[in-house]
Structure formats: structure tokens, C-alpha cells
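Changelog note: in this version the structure field was regenerated for every chain. One regenerated record is shown below for reference.
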Amino acid sequence: MNRLIIISLATLIFASCNNTKINDLNNQIINKEQQITQLNKQVDHLQSTNNSLLERMSEMSVINQTEARSIQSSLENINRQNQYITELNTQIKHKDSINTALANNLKRSLIDINDSDLEISVKGSAIYVSIADHLLFNSGSTKVLSSSSNVLDKVASVINDHNQLNVLVEGHTDNVPIHTRGISDNWDLSVLRATSIVRELQEKYLVDPERMTAAGRSHYIPKMNNTTSAGRKKNRRTEIIITPKLDQFFKLLEQPELAG
């Protein structure tokens, strides 16, 4: 009997010990499971953070690539514009050197003409040859004098030697009203004198008419005051304005690079 009691107590004690161990193990398992759950949450968070960082890095890469392309495009545009400016400056310098050479050539050719009757100057992109009216016309007349060949022949020679030049012939008068049959006023006189010179250059000196333009300015662009006889004499003139053909400059200005 006592032995049975001892066995029963031993069994109970053993069972109790096992239950305690089992409970401890269960508690440990629960703790581990909680730790695992927590770790999984941390892993998920880290994974999410990592993905976010990767996306941001990718976006930054895209932004950098876009900015890099934009910068490259800007640099290319700047280079094109620099090339355009360089070419335009070259053309301008070439034009200026031609104008200077032509002006000097004309001055040498016309050195025998009185300086007060003929002036040669370079203004901007043009050469101005200003000829007193008495070298070309009688007073109030639009008929070109035969003695004008002393001037027109030399001017035409320079023009014909340089086919890249255009010619504008302008008639100018003083402000004294004209009273001549067939000529209404100073507008008429200035225009008709200009066309007479153009026709003379074309027919007698073989200047290409496609290169020439005739214009009359009447008395509205005087060189001196019209209140004196000396001033009026200076204002009665014909100006032959020699300009480079501007096609090359217009072609440069039409380049699409300039739109940038």
C-alpha cells in the first residue's frame, strides 16, 4: 500500500515537473513566436524601406539623366550659336574689308575730282559716293551731261569689277520749288535724275540693271542748311550708294539654331 502511494506521488511529482517544463517550453515557444513575428515585421519594414530607397535612387537617376540630357542640349545649342556668331563676324569683317578697299579704290580713281564736288565715305555697311549735281546735270535738267563720264566711268568700273555689290542711286535737291515743264516738283526732279543715272550706268557702262535701284529723296535729307546758297548747292547732289548683297547674312539669320 505504501509502495503504491509512493509510486502515485512520484508519478504526480514527475507529471507536475513535466507540466512545468512543458509550460516553460510553451512559454518559450510563444516568446520565440512573438520574436519571430516582431522580426518579420522588422524585415517587412526594412524591405519596404529598401524598396523605397531603390525607387528614390531610380528617380534620382532618371532626374540626373534628364538634367544631363538638358545640359548637353544646352551646350550643343550654345556651341551652334557660337559657331553662328563666329561665322557672322567673319562675314562682317569680310564685308568691312571689302568696303574699305573699295572706298580707297574709288578715292584713288577719282582723285582728280574736286573734293567739294565729290565725297566718298563708308557708313555702316555701305559706301556713299556723293556727286554734286553740276557734274552730272544742268540746272533743273534730268539729262545727263556728257562730261559726267569722268565720274561715272570710274564708279561703274569699280561696280563691274565686284559683282557681289548692289547699287542704289538717290537723287537729292534743295528746297527751292522747281518751275520746269514736265517736272511737277522736287520729288519728280530727284526721281527722274536718279533714273537717268541708272539708265546711263546700264546702257553706257553695262552695269547689270538687276543690281541697281533708283530713288528720289527730294529736299528732305539735306546735308546742310537750305537757308544759304552754299548749303543749297551742297544739297543738290546724286548719291551712288554701293552695298554688299545681303543674301549671305539673311541665310545666316534664317538658321534654325537662332530660334534657340
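Spot check on this record: Helices lie at 2-109, 149-161, 186-203, 229-235, 247-253. The two ends are 113 Å apart (CA to CA).
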